Amino acid sequence: MAVAMRTFLRLPSSSSSTYGCCCLLKNIPILTSPTPNRFWASTHLSKHHFSSSSVSPPALGPQSNSNVIEILEQRNLLESVTSDSLRSVCSKPPPLRVYCGFDPTADSLHLGNLLGIIVLSWFLRCGHRAVALIGGATGRVGDPSGKSLERPELDLETLDKNICGISATILDILERAAAVGEMTDSACPSVSILNNYDWWKDITLLDFLKEVGRFARVGTMMSKESVRKRLESDQGMSYTEFTYQLLQGYDFVHLFRKEGVSVQIGGSDQWGNITAGTDLIRRILRTEGAYGLTFPLLLKSDGTKFGKSEDGAIWLSPSKLSPYNFYQYFFSVPDDDVVRFLKMLTFLSMEEIAQLERDMETPGYVPNTAQRRLAEEVTRFVHGQEGLEEAVKATVALRPGAATRLDAKTIEGIGEDVPSCSLPYDQVLSLSLLDLSVSTGLLESKSAARRLLKQGGLYLNNNRVDSEGKKIEANDIIDGKVILLSAGKKNKMVVRVS
């Protein structure tokens, strides 16, 4: 991707200057200003340039002449809107400014946050402008929506680290989305990242009661589903959590008044918080023109949340989950879910998705073709072309029986995603493969290893082993560093040799 211009006008803050490391890690110049407590990331990007690979080319999707509301409806990304007039507003100039909030509860976003970024990206692709609001202030309170217990309080150092991590991820992804949207002038950036601590840090309790509290109606607040469920539970709800909807609501007031943001988006569990904002704008500012939009939560066909694995959340940051493992998660999506996820999580045209769905019903359909396209598109969106190529290379190289030559870098790249162990060189050399499979924990017993070998399912560096007498030789240790053992197609063990 070629970057034509990138301007950072102000640096965000929470309780410290940790945010500077976020910019430095991304090789972003930090520019000082007299008021350093706000941060704009303005992106003016040329078209993507992709190197040749075996993966499919990216989908560019619609441009600024499309109505984003109609697109979201077609792709099952629209749950509710606060006003039907939003549809006509989206069709008229000037472009809208749309925001989605992200509370820094961890140092990485996870798959549950991805829909918010995708919906922002659709607005970008249709010529509008996106604002990602980091909850440096609200993250200290904790959103009760969908939660049965109050979140533990984060210390300030952890909070700053989390803000830095998720801001970098959001900026990376939205920049790529902006590259295929309508170019905007420098007076108003395509993508902005703000931190709500920058205005909340100067508001006293008396200011809050005067500015917001007198306009809030307790009955309306208590009728919100997230509040009602908690009040009816054994745990109840603290006053701190009860005020969260007013904090988020005032965020919308501030962004509407100071930044020209007129649309807030969020998951369906955010409906109460979003309508609190549109209501406060009407009461405090005595004006119309603020809209809310929600999208459905990402669920599998059985009704359970999509985005959890046996090991926990599916993280978006490559430091917490490699592009390879991220790709593999989507590659394993069941047939019952894959078409719906292609609509919701990719920018492929509806015609191409319909063709993939028809192909799945034909006798000559190659299994997992639709899943492969899903994995390619989502991995490219989150990790970029380089991340996708890394994932595809590892997937091909690590497939048992693959002809691709393995190298230590490829194997070590998945070392955190699959079981691994370390053994001394002299302990590995001349050890029988059966004994190595047991001592590393790949298989439970030597008899199990022998049985698997006879069935043709035991692999050394992707090469099937047929001889029980096979011993590890020097040329079996790839680059003198690692060995890859496979029991069948899925169970692997990386042996680091020292």
From TrEMBL:
Leader sequence segment: none
Recorded GO cellular component terms are: mitochondrion
| Location of the RNA-binding S4 domain | 432-489
InterPro entries, per database record: aa-tRNA-synth_I_CS (IPR001412), aa-tRNA-synth_Ic (IPR002305), Rossmann-like_a/b/a_fold (IPR014729), S4_RNA-bd (IPR002942), S4_RNA-bd_sf (IPR036986), SYY-like_C (IPR054608), Tyr-tRNA-ligase (IPR002307), Tyr-tRNA-ligase_bac-type (IPR024088)
Q: Which domain of life is it from?
A: Eukaryota
**What EC number(s) would the UniProt record show?**
6.1.1.1
Q: Does the keyword 4Fe-4S apply?
A: no
What GO molecular function annotation could you give as one example from this UniProt entry?
Answer: RNA binding
List the Pfam families.
SYY_C-terminal, tRNA-synt_1b
Keyword vocabulary terms for this entry: Aminoacyl-tRNA synthetase, ATP-binding, Ligase, Mitochondrion, Nucleotide-binding, Protein biosynthesis, RNA-binding, Transit peptide
Q: CDD domains attached here?
A: S4 (cd00165), TyrRS_core (cd00805)
Any Gene Ontology biological process: translation
Cellular localisation: Mitochondrion
Catalyzed chemical reaction(s): tRNA(Tyr) + L-tyrosine + ATP = L-tyrosyl-tRNA(Tyr) + AMP + diphosphate + H(+)
Q: Which family does it belong to?
A: Belongs to the class-I aminoacyl-tRNA synthetase family.
Q: What's the stated role of this polypeptide?
A: Catalyzes the attachment of tyrosine to tRNA(Tyr) in a two-step reaction: tyrosine is first activated by ATP to form Tyr-AMP and then transferred to the acceptor end of tRNA(Tyr).
Recorded protein name is Tyrosine--tRNA ligase
